[in-house]
């Protein structure tokens, strides 16, 4: 087929360029793709080919024809100009003026010079097609250079050419290049920016003089953060955002609370002066506290929520994402246009803490996406006392990790508030348009030390010599507006005095702050019904047998032609028999029925974990897969297909970020059963910060209620030290003040009632469940359907064989898997004088239940705690003093049988494990020895 003349001419010009013969075929193939779809090739090639087509005159020779040498030279220059433009887009940020301290002077890469592109001898009058560069076309080379330098080498350094989407790159180019570093703010906007910078500086000065030497982790040096956040809120509201959830560490937090969220200076003064806050718990330092408020914007009221955060810096990042996801679900905000996450990072933490990467990795995943986060890096150019680049990170920028998710990064000089507000507008609009993460790198400095009692010059003398002589951001910007004639000379002083008067009055200093009674009717979920509730509530959690059978029947139905794996088919067939009452229920069936009944009651159920849809131990099968087509179905979602309220996610290989996400979700969704399942219980070790700082203590520190459930497979079954223990001793050590529940259910009925209890009663505390492995299929670990139809969770279970109390001489108390070993040994050896009791709830400690059951065996003379775990681990350290308190009334003491104290949770050799297991059973029923004598108590 004959090629069109225009294509022939373009191909001819392409072949006459100085392209290596080996690369010509590649270039021609790209050109063919470009002709079909300009967006299908990289932006640089699209510009190149576009220019070729525009430059090829109608009478230009076709491929293979002769061409004038002068025309050929112009064509080569045209290509080099396009390459020169592209170099600025890729590398211009290296030459940008980003450092307010002037310590890191811009270094112009050779690719940003004319000589590098052989353009240093170009005729000044010669014009070129600038391709996609926004500006005059055609344009002289000096005009092109002016646009590029103003756009990419002034106070903004934009990194976006690593993005994989040509459309996103084109959009960012248009926004940046059309402005050319001149942001077009009107005088009213400029005055508003100055007012916000004045507020940022004014609060720090006020606190510095009023509370000398007290820690506040000031914002001085990064005051542009306040107009940045104000722009986000106002522009976000105008774009339809109804809620913004903000996470940040302690640097600048007090300033954000007062100048963005509207916390009253009077309330902040109370905290500085040591008066207790409204939280009735143990409390926390003022720069960890959260807050919420409503602010009026051009698009209506926006609800602002600042997440509570410990000093573990970046751990709040996934917590914010989880909270946002829950709010988006509540508002049916599937596109993320109503609820937006904003996270403020420190530069050293953003580069240094692995949870940042874990959270970024969740950004576009099905179960964790929040449709884009605005990340703000307050880049003080120092981490505590570390500022030498070779010590603080291995990347050029602190933000380089964000490139893993193709997030655009806007580096901006923090001493140019207008540039800061401009990139904020771009960032917000990008997030709203493309539903992806975006990063603002606010390059600034820290005027004080790490805290106000610190002396930074001791470790950074040269840096702080510059800072001491540096005018503040407010001073610089005020002088600039005066020189531009925007404000009079006396306006900056008036703004300072007016702001200080507002602080002295104790009233809020945020314009547009709405009083509670005028706030928008759209509000987060009310936690009031769950406050001040007692755990000891007699709640029936049974469900009528007919309903259970019907649900199980519905869950087992498969679409016509749907082919499941043979092993899964056998499980479904067994569940059909269970529904008919022909065989007892196993663990997976009872658990599934718990979720199904909660869904039918109108609750939501959300579960995540690395193997949660199938279950690590092949027991759950919440998602079924067609073996012929690969199609998947989720039976629990089909109970209400119009409004499915069940979600199960096989999560990414992360514990810390995923568990923190689920914690954040649970704090914003009191009417959802939110579960995180560890692949093995010890995997929770990788999320210990979340457990210590949020799950166990969030209520006491911050008054945050949370009903999150942790499912942690636990059991000593010869799988070695890494896959035996979920470390119950760690959770029990953290238990106090009725802060959470630690349970060890051993029957399907128990887990059914336990999970239902979590939502049916008006009580929201974290629930840590030591779940089984081998018991999932143990012939004795089954329940009758009637046990689910009535009753409730039993914190303690009496001996299943119901021995005659007067004949019992020894009472064994235990928890978890080993119960079935003890039961088997008792029956096989005919130990009719031994009663075996199961403690199914370790905390809150079931003293009333235990007192009642132990009272049945008032003739017994020996009481023994038996556990799988070593004696320095497991439940013993927690249970022993509490059981001794109960036994002391009858003059008894507890004896203990456990594996020897060990550094690792379990042995790694199967034969050693079996030997230990046999020894445990022998000692449990044998004579009490010195080894079993209880340790002295204080």
Automatic annotation (TrEMBL):
A Gene Ontology biological process noted in the UniProt record is: glycolytic process
Which CDD domains would you find in this protein's record? TPP_E1_OGDC_like
Q: What is its EC number?
A: 1.2.4.2
Under the heading Pfam families, the entry gives: 2-oxogl_dehyd_N, E1_dh, OxoGdeHyase_C, Transket_pyr
Domain of life assignment:
Bacteria
A GO molecular function assigned to this protein is: thiamine pyrophosphate binding
* Cofactor(s) required for function per UniProt: thiamine diphosphate
NCBIfam families (UniProt xref): 2oxo_dh_E1, PRK09404.1, PRK12270.1
Give the matching PANTHER family.
2-OXOADIPATE DEHYDROGENASE COMPLEX COMPONENT E1, 2-OXOGLUTARATE DEHYDROGENASE
Q: What protein family does this chain belong to?
A: Belongs to the alpha-ketoglutarate dehydrogenase family.
Name assigned to this protein: 2-oxoglutarate dehydrogenase E1 component
Organism field:
Thioalkalivibrio paradoxus ARh 1
Q: Give the source lineage, highest ranks first.
A: Bacteria, Pseudomonadati, Pseudomonadota, Gammaproteobacteria, Chromatiales
């Amino acid at each position: 087929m004959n090629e069109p003349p225009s294509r022939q001419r373009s191909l001819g010009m392409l072949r006459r360029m100085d392209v290596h013969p080996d690369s010509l075929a590649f270039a021609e193939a790209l050109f063919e793709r470009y002709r079909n779809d300009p967006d299908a090739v990289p932006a640089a090639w699209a510009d190149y080919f576009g220019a070729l087509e525009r430059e090829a005159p109608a009478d230009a020779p076709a491929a293979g024809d002769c061409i004038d040498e002068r025309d050929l030279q112009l064509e080569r220059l045209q290509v080099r100009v396009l390459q020169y433009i592209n170099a600025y887009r890729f590398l211009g940020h290296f030459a940008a003026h980003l450092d307010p301290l002037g310590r890191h002077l811009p270094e112009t890469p050779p690719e940003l010079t004319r000589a590098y592109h052989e353009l240093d001898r170009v005729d000044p009058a010669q014009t070129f097609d600038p391709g996609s560069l926004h500006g005059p076309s055609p344009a002289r080379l000096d005009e092109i250079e002016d646009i590029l330098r103003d756009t990419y080498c002034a106070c903004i350094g934009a990194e976006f050419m690593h993005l994989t989407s040509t459309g996103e790159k084109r959009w960012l180019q248009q926004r940046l290049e059309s402005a050319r570093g001149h942001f077009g703010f009107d005088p009213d906007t400029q005055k508003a920016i100055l007012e916000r910078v004045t507020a940022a500086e004014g609060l720090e000065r006020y606190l510095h003089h009023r509370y000398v030497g007290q820690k506040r982790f000031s914002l001085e040096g990064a005051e542009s953060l306040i107009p940045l956040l104000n722009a986000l809120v106002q522009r976000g509201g105008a774009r339809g955002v109804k809620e913004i959830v903000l996470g940040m560490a302690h640097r600048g937090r007090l300033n954000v609370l007062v100048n963005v969220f509207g916390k009253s200076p009077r309330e902040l003064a109370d905290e500085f002066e040591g008066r207790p806050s409204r939280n009735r718990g143990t409390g926390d330092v003022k720069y960890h506290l959260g807050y919420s408020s409503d602010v009026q914007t051009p698009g209506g009221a926006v609800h602002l929520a600042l997440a509570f955060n410990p000093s573990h810096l970046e751990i709040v990042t996934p917590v914010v994402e989880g909270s946002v996801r829950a709010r988006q679900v509540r508002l049916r905000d599937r596109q993320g246009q109503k609820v937006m996450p904003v996270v403020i990072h420190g530069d050293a933490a953003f580069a240094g803490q692995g949870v940042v990467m874990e959270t970024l990795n969740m950004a576009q995943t099905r179960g964790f996406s929040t449709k884009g986060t605005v990340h703000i890096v307050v880049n003080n150019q120092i981490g505590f006392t570390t500022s030498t680049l070779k010590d603080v990170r291995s990347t050029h920028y602190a933000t380089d990790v964000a490139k893993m998710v193709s997030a655009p990064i806007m580096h901006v000089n923090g001493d140019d508030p207008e540039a800061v507000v401009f990139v904020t507008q771009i960032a917000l609009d990008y997030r709203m348009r493309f539903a992806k993460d975006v990063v603002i790198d606010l390059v600034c400095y820290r005027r004080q030390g790490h805290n106000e009692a610190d002396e930074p010059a001791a470790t950074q003398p040269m840096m702080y010599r510059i800072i001491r002589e540096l005018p503040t951001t407010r001073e610089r910007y005020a002088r600039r507006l005066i020189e531009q004639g925007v404000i009079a000379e006396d306006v900056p002083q008036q703004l300072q005095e007016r702001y200080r008067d507002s602080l002295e009055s104790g009233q809020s200093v945020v314009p547009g702050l709405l009083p509670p009674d005028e706030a928008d009717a759209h509000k987060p979920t009310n936690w009031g019904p769950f406050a001040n509730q007692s755990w000891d509530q007699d709640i029936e959690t049974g469900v009528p047998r007919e309903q259970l059978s019907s649900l199980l029947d519905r869950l087992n139905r498969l679409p016509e032609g749907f082919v499941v794996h043979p092993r899964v088919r056998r499980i479904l067939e067994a569940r059909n028999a269970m529904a008919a009452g022909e065989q007892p229920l196993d663990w997976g069936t009872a658990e599934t029925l718990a979720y199904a009944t909660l869904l039918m009651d109108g609750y939501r159920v959300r579960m995540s974990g690395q193997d949660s849809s199938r279950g690590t131990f092949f027991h759950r099968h919440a998602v079924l897969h067609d073996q012929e087509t690969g199609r998947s179905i989720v039976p629990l979602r089909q109970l209400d297909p119009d409004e499915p309220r069940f979600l199960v996610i096989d999560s990414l290989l992360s514990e810390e970020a995923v568990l923190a996400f689920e914690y954040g979700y649970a704090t914003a969704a009191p009417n959802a059963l939110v579960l995180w399942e560890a692949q093995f219980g010890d995997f929770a070790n990788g999320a210990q910060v979340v457990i210590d700082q949020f799950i166990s203590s969030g209520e006491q520190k911050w008054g945050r209620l949370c009903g999150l459930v942790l499912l942690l497979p636990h059991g000593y079954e010869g799988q070695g030290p890494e896959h035996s223990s979920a470390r119950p001793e760690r959770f029990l050590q953290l238990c106090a003040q009725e802060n959470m529940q630690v349970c060890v259910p051993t029957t399907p009925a128990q887990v059914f009632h336990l999970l239902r209890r979590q939502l049916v009663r008006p009580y929201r505390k974290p629930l840590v469940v030591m779940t089984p492995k081998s018991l999932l299929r143990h012939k004795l670990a089954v329940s009758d359907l009637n046990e689910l139809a009535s009753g409730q969770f039993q914190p303690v279970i009496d001996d299943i064989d119901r021995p005659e109390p007067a004949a019992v001489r020894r009472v064994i108390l235990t928890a978890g898997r080993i119960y079935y070993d003890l039961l088997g040994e008792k029956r096989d050896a005919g130990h009719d004088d031994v009663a075996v009791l199961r403690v199914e709830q370790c905390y809150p400690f079931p003293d009333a239940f235990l007192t009642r059951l132990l009272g049945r065996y008032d003739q017994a003379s020996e009481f023994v705690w038996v556990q799988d775990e070593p004696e320095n681990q497991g439940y013993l350290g927690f249970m022993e003093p509490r059981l001794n308190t109960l036994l002391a009334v009858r003059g008894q003491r507890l004896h203990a049988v456990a594996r020897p104290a060990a550094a690792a949770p379990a042995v790694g050799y199967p034969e050693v494990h079996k030997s230990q297991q046999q020894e445990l059973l022998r000692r449990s029923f044998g004579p009490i020895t010195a080894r079993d004598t209880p340790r002295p108590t204080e």
